[in-house]
Q: What sequence folds into this?
């Protein structure tokens, strides 16, 4: 059997920034990975894990400090323009023109990317059908719901057909129903256009339908694999702690994060705190840390 096509190959990648206190730190800290072509891949990680930084480097918008970065067979550091010609990137805060209508937004992005008129008609039709927005072409983008805004953002990102699609947290601010729609659209794109898609998200459960997941934390890859294998590995490591009236979620989160020898990460969610313990942190050590909390 032949090797599956590789769409992204990264080796020893590093990106250093200055923290607010002026000290340099590695937002991407020696990352190596390969992404297979023609499937959905997820970058999962909490705020500040480095997802956006990595995507911007892959899109040729940010220069790495060290390492090699190959996208669609192109050395991104040597030739960012060639990569940009073949990928579409939807940033975390995608810029729609709120005063312009759905159709005007599509026209504007097609102009920006120099999409020929004869290609547009077919492409717009397909995007509007896929996102179920054909009825709303006259509506100002500012009057759309969060879910519809994201779908329009996706349609604008796809005014020309790329070989690789990068979506940075596309489901933020989207209600659960529209979120499901959004994932369906992405699935359909992969099936119909043999597209490779990389999507970032803070939520593991969203990554269930991906072929491959990379879990990021503090600029490193904590784990990777297909969803099933990751779930098995993570079994028994994830917890939810109820915040108590006198101990708000963020205080509890701070305490958990302050024990990096026992806890990998903790995030507040809906008034509770979701956290992951290190495999070597046993139940007794955990109980000690959470002595006055219900888990
Ligand atoms: N231009 C920059 N200058 C300095 N620090 C930066 C810069 N861009 C990102 N960072 C820092 O690098 C780290 C990684 O940020 P990044 O935006 O890549 O994370 P993320 O995983 O996308 O998180 P988020 O959930 O916030 O989108 C963070 O600590 C962030 O503050
Ligand atoms: Mg980000």
A:
């Amino acid at each position: 059997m032949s090797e599956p096509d590789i769409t992204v190959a990264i080796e020893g990648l590093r990106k250093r920034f200055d923290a607010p206190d002026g000290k340099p730190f590695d937002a991407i800290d020696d990352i190596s990975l390969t992404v297979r072509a023609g499937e959905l891949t997820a970058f999962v990680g909490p705020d500040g894990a480095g997802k956006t930084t990595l995507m911007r480097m892959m899109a040729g918008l940010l220069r790495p400090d060290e390492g090699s970065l190959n996208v669609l067979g192109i050395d991104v550091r040597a030739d960012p323009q060639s990569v940009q010609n073949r990928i579409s990137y939807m940033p975390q805060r995608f810029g729609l023109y709120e005063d312009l209508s759905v159709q005007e937004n599509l026209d504007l992005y097609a102009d920006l990317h120099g999409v020929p008129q004869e290609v547009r008609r077919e492409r717009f039709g397909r995007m509007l059908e896929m996102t179920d927005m054909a009825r709303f072409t006259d509506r100002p983008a500012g009057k759309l719901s969060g879910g519809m805004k994201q779908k329009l953002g996706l349609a604008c990102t796809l005014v020309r057909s790329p070989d690789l699609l990068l979506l940075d947290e596309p489901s933020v601010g989207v209600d659960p129903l529209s979120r499901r729609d959004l994932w369906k659209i992405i699935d359909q794109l992969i099936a119909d256009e043999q597209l490779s898609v990389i999507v970032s998200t803070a939520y593991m459960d969203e990554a269930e339908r991906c072929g491959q997941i990379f879990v990021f934390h503090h600029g490193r890859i904590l784990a990777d694999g297909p969803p099933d294998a990751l779930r098995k590995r993570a079994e028994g490591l994830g917890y939810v702690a109820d915040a108590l009236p006198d101990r708000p979620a963020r205080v509890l989160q701070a305490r958990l994060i302050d024990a990096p020898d026992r806890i990998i990460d903790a995030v507040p969610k809906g008034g509770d705190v979701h956290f992951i313990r290190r495999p070597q942190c046993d139940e007794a050590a955990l109980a000690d840390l959470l002595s006055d909390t219900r888990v």
User: Anything to note?
Assistant: The chain has two domains: 3-229, 234-289. The pocket of adenosine-5'-triphosphate (ligand 1) is lined by residues 17-18, 27, 45, 47-53, 92, 202 (CB under 6 Å).
